[in-house]
Amino acid sequence: MEAFILFWFFVLGAAIGSFLNVCIYRLPQKLSIISPPSFCPQCDRKIKPLENIPIISYIFLRGKCRGCSSKISIRYPIIEFISGTLTLFVIIDSGYTLTSAAALIFIYIGITVFFIDIDHGIIPDPIVILGVAAVLIIQLTGRHLGWVDFISGAAAGAGFLIFTALVGKFMFKKESMGGGDIKFSFMMGLFLGPQNTVVGLFASFIFAAFIGITLKIIHGDKPAGEIPFGPYLVMGSLTALFYGDIIADIYLTWVGLR
Ligand SMILES: [Zn+2]
């Protein structure tokens, strides 16, 4: 594909990332994501279109509001950059296909859930419902997965987390999984199908263990606070989205099944 066209897909992805920033900020507060237009939370100054260009504006404003000079979080351009880059990867990978559409919707939902869960410890239901509705429409219009994979993926996702939640409850007497995590995994299964869902869930647990131990070392005896599982689910499922086939291949060869 031409570099010029790919560049515009990055720009489009970054612009969507800018919208995701609005969703991450407003959805947990139950504010409208459409109006009012973006404003500085410190001085209420309306953000002009030129100050609202993904990534670029942050650099030109040197990370400060033009009205009150209060700092703009570096997270805004980072999210725009991640969204642009992943959009580019998907288009390079799968071109103008239904597979790409499904992958992109899943990625945008993943980014939103990742940051909302870190900030508030919740995965809002409307996001998951939107995801399920979108993947259903894609499945009905062009079938991005076979129906058996579509349904068994969701069963695998939800089932595995319900099982983990029950084990956690009976063995360790504490809540290890929330309802939001289970609903997200159900949706993940609809997007990814059974094989990638299993890869994604295992990757999530590996990320959780690895990062959990690292944080423990950094924080020492001080408890680092409860870390929600949603961000790990997003990291794991995005890993599976891009590398699920390769990981499954390596694993199956390793255990002698391929
Ligand atoms: Zn301001």
Q: What is the average per-residue confidence, as pLDDT, rounded to a whole number?
A: 91
N- to C-terminal separation? 34 Å
Bound molecules: zinc ion
Q: How many E strands?
A: 0
Strand percentage lies at under 5%
Helical fraction: over 70%
Structural account:
The chain has 258 residues and is an all-alpha fold. It has two domains: 1-96, no CATH class; 124-258, no CATH class. It has helices at 3-26, 56-60, 75-94, 98-120, 125-142, 147-171, 179-219, 230-254. It is globular. The mean pLDDT is 91. Residues 40, 42-43, 45, 65, 67-68, 70 line the site of zinc ion.
Q: Would you summarize the structure shown here?
A:
This protein is mainly alpha-helical and 258 residues long. The protein has helices spanning 3-26, 56-60, 75-94, 98-120, 125-142, 147-171, 179-219, 230-254.
